[in-house]
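Can anyone check this?
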Amino acid sequence: MNYTWVSMSEFVLHCAIDTQQKSYTTPVLVMVYLATLFGNLLVILIISTNHRLQTPMYICIATLAVIDLLSSTNIIPQIVAVLLDSTATSYGLCLFQMLLVYYLEAVESLLLAVMACDRYVAVVHPLRYPSLITNKTAWMAVTLLHFSMALFLVPYVLYVTELSFCDTNILNYCFCDYITTVKIACNEETKYLLMVSTTSIVFGVCPFALILLSYFRIAYAALKISSADGKRKVFNTLITHLLVVGLFNIPLVTSYILTGTGVTLSAEAYNTMVIIGNIVPPMFNPIIYSFRNKEIKNSIHRLLTGVKNVTRNE
């Protein structure tokens, strides 16, 4: 087979959204991005300026807010630019974006599992919690997550540099995506997509299973609570956490594993699942993990009103 090799200096992104949909998709994305920025920046500000929130749980919540900020900033402005017909992106920036997408997705998946384990120890083993979960432990866990994800990216970096392109440099996607890039390469091989399935199981399915197990144990412990109101609060928290975790994990893991194992998804289905998994949870995470928390609500109240002390029972 004869190929026309392309000297790749840039990719052209083609977001398959018709003109009528663009008219409302763009402002919706802008509003989602602004809401995500506001919510996560507020969480980071509150936790970093309140010494009483310098605890393992809040260290994880602040880390999650930073990851969500980076993830949204990495993706949404690019999609908006493409919808506004700024479709060309340099080769180097495109590779950086696709690798950063995978890095942040994997770190967030593992971090959510760490947070679930933290809650498990706090609820099921409350007397041992102070000795098992310390600030040092939390920072070590966060550092280990980032270090392990850096190693996780090495095969992707090697595979991306092996790809050769011919006939086209058009990516039928709204931002730079590894799988879409592999599919337009002349030397597409099974190993390039199989890596996606493997890493999705390790960094997606396994952490999600650990989260489900931790929450099941917490739910079981909650059944022993004598207070009906206490049970209701625990189960409401578990349900909302599982909804946002599922909204993040399920679309991404499903799309990556199916595509990586050779199952053909329509471009619209694949695009929708990956975009939802990357855009919606960062907007809801501050609400689910932070703004429903009494300590953070009190801190926001103090920040906005200038009141130095807010009673814990208000």
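Reply from J.R.: I decoded it. Confidence is low (pLDDT under 50) at residues 310-314.
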